[in-house]
Amino acid sequence: MNTLKEKNKFIATILAFAIFPMSGFATDIYLPSMPSMATELHQPESNIQLTLSIFLISYGITQFFAGSIVDSFGRYRISLVSLALFAVTFLITATTQSIMVIYAMRVLQGVLSGFVAVSKRAFFVDVYEGEERKHYLSIMTIVWSVGPIVAPFIGGYLQKIFGWQSNFYFLAGYSVLVLIFELIFSGETLKRRNPFHLEFLIKEYETMFRTKDFFYGMLMCGLSYAMVFFFNLCGAFIIEHKLGYPQVATGYVSLFLGFAWMTGGFLGKALIKKEFLPKIRYANFIQLGLIVLMFVESFFINNIYSLVVFAFVIHVTAGFIFNNYYAYCVGRFPNSAGIAGGLTGGVAFIITSAVSYGVASIIKPEIQLQVAEGYFVIGILGLFILSMIKIRKAHI
């Protein structure tokens, strides 16, 4: 077995950070292209939006079983195969005009992203311990936000110059490049293989679901990212179709909002030693207060600047909550890191997909006021979960 060499530990860590944002790249790089895709493929907006939700659903479901697989069979080979298949599916997506083929490829890309994400989350738990592990897990969520920051910015220019297909050619090339470096510098990090027995897996999942702090943490991760993903689903259509801005503008807006998510992550890391639940509750209250202000302001001003400014500060609070809970959940069960990471990602991203697509489908936001309505629904759901945690702790 090609195990990770100590001399390559630093390079392998950098590669893990390079691979981890792949899911963000796969969802966000073509955000500026969504209106053009709808036009060229002769599809309604909802069908193009569905390509995002399909990806997230398959991404989330895969992580339920991917964790047990990488804990039993290792991380390295699974990552290599996933990266190779990534390139193939992205090439197929770029060369087809069939929405059904695109749907199929998005399902496969979600599956592959699930395996890669779970493998690389477990990498940090395998290689690092103690405070160093907490440090890297916290950084991991920040690095993950690089995808949503950089991808739409790149995608906006790719769309302007080459068309929507170029986004997927770019992803294919990125996958091949990372695969080559993985083959040269990385290796297997799993030290103790867990048995791949159904009884063992059921017991592990039952233990994790019964651990209330872990369970509520998964829910909060899903709701926090749903707030960001809700804007991803409707933002490009509002900016390009309703406000009349070009695709590059969508890329700049996504870049700006990506920094909001990263800012929330940095705040989470900076306040990592503060008492956990109080800081999460404060963030949720601030979030709801900002959404109310967005409601009020919508009756007086309704332009791209007001929309983006409010989205920015709201996404900072979402990134803060996500960073804290995600790092907590992934490191909660270090002896079953793959399963814990997979379960966290699986539940979180299924919730993200269901809530964001559901809210967007019901509200069908076309103006700032309706975006605020969607934010408010998701923020209230978060307040409900945090209230349940408080009530439960009061009865212990």
Automatic annotation (TrEMBL):
<keyword id="KW-0813">Transport</keyword>
<feature type="transmembrane region" description="Helical">
    <location>
        <begin position="136"/>
        <end position="155"/>
    </location>
</feature>
<keyword id="KW-0812">Transmembrane</keyword>
<dbReference type="InterPro" id="IPR011701">
    <property type="entry name" value="MFS"/>
</dbReference>
<keyword id="KW-0472">Membrane</keyword>
<feature type="transmembrane region" description="Helical">
    <location>
        <begin position="307"/>
        <end position="327"/>
    </location>
</feature>
<feature type="transmembrane region" description="Helical">
    <location>
        <begin position="284"/>
        <end position="301"/>
    </location>
</feature>
<feature type="transmembrane region" description="Helical">
    <location>
        <begin position="214"/>
        <end position="239"/>
    </location>
</feature>
<feature type="transmembrane region" description="Helical">
    <location>
        <begin position="50"/>
        <end position="69"/>
    </location>
</feature>
<feature type="domain" description="Major facilitator superfamily (MFS) profile">
    <location>
        <begin position="12"/>
        <end position="396"/>
    </location>
</feature>
<keyword id="KW-1133">Transmembrane helix</keyword>
<feature type="transmembrane region" description="Helical">
    <location>
        <begin position="167"/>
        <end position="185"/>
    </location>
</feature>
<feature type="transmembrane region" description="Helical">
    <location>
        <begin position="369"/>
        <end position="389"/>
    </location>
</feature>
<dbReference type="InterPro" id="IPR020846">
    <property type="entry name" value="MFS_dom"/>
</dbReference>
<feature type="transmembrane region" description="Helical">
    <location>
        <begin position="76"/>
        <end position="94"/>
    </location>
</feature>
<dbReference type="InterPro" id="IPR036259">
    <property type="entry name" value="MFS_trans_sf"/>
</dbReference>
<feature type="transmembrane region" description="Helical">
    <location>
        <begin position="339"/>
        <end position="363"/>
    </location>
</feature>
<dbReference type="Pfam" id="PF07690">
    <property type="entry name" value="MFS_1"/>
</dbReference>
<feature type="transmembrane region" description="Helical">
    <location>
        <begin position="100"/>
        <end position="124"/>
    </location>
</feature>
<feature type="transmembrane region" description="Helical">
    <location>
        <begin position="251"/>
        <end position="272"/>
    </location>
</feature>
<protein>
    <submittedName>
        <fullName>MFS transporter</fullName>
    </submittedName>
</protein>
